[in-house]
């Protein structure tokens, strides 16, 4: 993506889109408020110290770019989300899981600390841009492994605390104004992310996908910075989910979803990739079957390879079917079947399918270890009529699934398509 500023516009290929002096992105949150000990009311405009760390604000995936005058849009970066916390003259960089990575980005920490002598808490992304201005995660990893970190950039998109002031309760548009005063540039080792106004969202998404980017992030300009919330920030992703191909095995059920008229997999790049994988599968199996026929080892091949592969492939496919097939909600709980498997039978069934009981919790907290998933089961309680209660056992979940196999739609993107 070639990024160039000229007369208040940013160029994507041949399309110029107006630039707004602001910024934004996808995850982080600092608890920077005081609570009155008498009435528990929030106290505003008092000097408070920058807290060490609190969970990031998150973004939920949506099938289409949101419309409406309250939205601001920005490019979704492909890097590491880092929180920059300067307190008492010492700057530290934290990951979204509260790991201190200051030692991995010492040069960036020095540049960030030079922005101000005052305390601040900043949310941003560490990236490496390629020669076309696109963030590339592989190049970021290569730079870290080689120790050549001069190409690493910190892109700031939110400011949560500044000089004793809690900014979290301010609207995003106001926070971005404060951020622009602290980080004035959209270039250099520390830069401010660019935002686009509400009416540019769809065109920005089209251009981002055409330039090989991940997608865009849209944020409510009037929204507060909310710890762990997915309500105010959404992301529109260019790349189709990789759940159609499982370990080289493409089930006919998902192949039907790919080939059907009006398939939501519209990206030419993704469709070409799937066709290439299908061609590779056919080619490899042609070679294998020809070799088996030439050496007359059909019985050995059948029992030692074909049958185990068929069973393993189908078990993995049914695992994915149970989790998502037939569900078209736009939240985790409305698009995921979660099974409560406390008994030995449920645990045995889960083990045979390599399935995670309480699967919705896994999607809500991707980094959570599997043994801890049951402790968060209360988060699976439906909040809307569309959301699904956890199933008490796999039998009930399979019954619910079988009713959906006639038309295996997966994800909210199928809602607008004809039956």
Break the fold down into its secondary structure elements and pairings.
Blueprint: E1 5-6, E2 9-12, E3 15-18, E4 28-29, E5 34-35, E6 42-43, E7 54-57, E8 60-61, E9 71-75, E10 80-87, E11 90-95, H1 106-113, E12 120-128, H2 137-146, E13 152-162, E14 165-166, H3 172-182, E15 190-192, H4 201-210, E16 215-220, E17 233-237, H5 252-259, H6 268-295, H7 298-324, H8 344-353, H9 359-364, H10 394-402
Parallel strand pairs: 8-17, 13-15
Antiparallel strand pairs: 1-2, 2-3, 4-7, 5-6, 9-16, 10-11, 10-12, 12-13, 13-14, 16-17
Please tell me about this protein's structure.
The protein is of the alpha+beta class. It has two domains: 5-31 and 41-237, DNA ligase/mRNA capping enzyme (D-amino Acid Aminotransferase, Chain A, domain 1, 2-Layer Sandwich); 243-414, no CATH class. It is built from ten helices and 17 strands. The protein has helices at residues 106-113, 137-146, 172-182, 201-210, 252-259, 268-295, 298-324, 344-353, 359-364, 394-402; strands at 5-6, 9-12, 15-18, 28-29, 34-35, 42-43, 54-57, 60-61, 71-75, 80-87, 90-95, 120-128, 152-162, 165-166, 190-192, 215-220, 233-237. A hairpin with a 6-residue loop joins strand 5 (34-35) and strand 6. The radius of gyration is 24 Å and the shape is globular. Residues 1-48 and 240-250 have low confidence and may be disordered.
Number of domains: 2
Q: Which structural class do you get from the secondary structure elements?
A: alpha+beta
What is the count of β-strands? 17
CATH superfamily of the largest domain: DNA ligase/mRNA capping enzyme
The CATH architecture classification of the largest domain is 2-Layer Sandwich
Q: So how many helices?
A: 10
The CATH class of the largest domain is identified as Alpha Beta
Q: Estimate the mean pLDDT confidence.
A: 75
Order of helices and strands: EEEEEEEEEEEHEHEEHEHEEHHHHHH
- N-to-C span: 37 Å
CATH-derived topology of the largest domain: D-amino Acid Aminotransferase, Chain A, domain 1
Described by strand count, sense and barrel closure, the largest sheet is: 6 strands, mixed
Overall helicity: 25-40%
Beta-strand content bin:
15-25%
Q: Determine Rg (CA atoms, Å).
A: 24 Å
From the spread of the alpha carbons, the general shape counts as: globular
């Amino acid at each position: 993506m070639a990024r160039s500023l000229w007369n208040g516009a940013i160029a994507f290929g041949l399309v110029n889109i107006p630039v707004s002096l602001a910024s934004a992105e996808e995850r982080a949150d600092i608890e920077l408020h005081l609570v009155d000990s008498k009435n528990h009311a929030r106290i505003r405009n008092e000097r408070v110290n920058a807290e060490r760390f609190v969970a990031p604000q998150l973004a939920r995936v949506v099938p289409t770019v949101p419309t409406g005058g309250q939205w601001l849009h920005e490019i979704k970066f492909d890097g590491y989300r880092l929180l920059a916390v300067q307190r008492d003259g010492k700057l530290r960089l934290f990951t979204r899981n509260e790991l201190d990575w200051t030692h991995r980005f010492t040069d960036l920490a020095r540049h960030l600390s030079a922005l101000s002598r005052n305390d601040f808490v900043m949310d941003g992304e560490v990236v490496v841009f390629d020669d076309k201005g696109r963030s590339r995660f592989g190049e970021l990893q290569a730079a870290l492994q080689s120790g050549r970190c001069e190409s690493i950039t910190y892109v700031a998109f939110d400011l949560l605390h500044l000089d004793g002031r809690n900014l979290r309760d301010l609207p995003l548009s106001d926070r971005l104004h404060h951020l622009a005063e602290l980080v004035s540039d959209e270039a250099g080792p520390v830069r401010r992310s660019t935002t686009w106004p509400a009416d540019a969202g769809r065109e920005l998404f089209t251009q981002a996908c055409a330039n090989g980017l991940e997608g865009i992030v849209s944020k409510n300009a009037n929204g507060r910075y909310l710890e762990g919330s997915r309500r105010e920030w959404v992301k529109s992703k260019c790349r189709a989910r990789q759940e159609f191909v499982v370990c080289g095995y493409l089930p006919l059920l998902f192949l039907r979803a790919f080939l059907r008229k009006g398939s939501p997999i519209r990206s030419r790049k993704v469709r070409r990739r799937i066709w290439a994988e299908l061609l590779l599968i056919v080619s490899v199996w042609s070679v294998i079957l020809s070799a088996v026929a030439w050496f007359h080892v059909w019985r050995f091949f059948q029992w030692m390879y074909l049958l185990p592969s068929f069973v393993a492939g189908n078990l993995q496919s049914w695992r994915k079917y149970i989790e998502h097939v037939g569900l078209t909600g736009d939240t985790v709980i409305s698009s995921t079947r979660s099974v409560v498997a406390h008994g030995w039978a449920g645990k045995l069934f889960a083990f045979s399918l390599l399935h995670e009981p309480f699967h919705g919790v896994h999607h809500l907290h991707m980094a959570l270890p599997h043994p801890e998933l049951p402790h968060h089961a209360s988060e699976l309680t439906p909040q809307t009529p569309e959301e699904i209660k956890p199933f008490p056992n796999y039998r009930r979940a399979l019954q619910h699934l079988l009713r959906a196999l006639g038309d295996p739609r997966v994800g909210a993107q199928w809602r607008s398509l004809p039956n």
